[in-house]
Amino acid sequence: MRMLIDQHNFVYQVSIPWPYLNQAQIDWLNGVETVEEWLKSNVGARYKYWAWVDSHSYNQLGVGFRWEQDQLLFLLRWK
Hints:
Strand content: 15-25%
Largest sheet: 3 strands, antiparallel
Number of helices: 2
Oligomer: single chain
Low-confidence stretches: none
Strand order of the largest sheet: 1-3-2
Mean pLDDT: 85
Order of helices and strands: EHEEH
């Protein structure tokens, strides 16, 4: 989703499947809020420690991270 791309300089970037893909229709708002709340709680503030990036896929969310360890924690949780 183009609207989820932030301006940032974070090197560590990942793409994950949308949460709740098993539903008949993807609830993108609920998916974004779910991931964003987890990131706020476990990684920290948006723009300071993480930002939305282009996932290059319509059925995935992209996230960029300032620190590699936050990227790894996130991947362990969502993959």
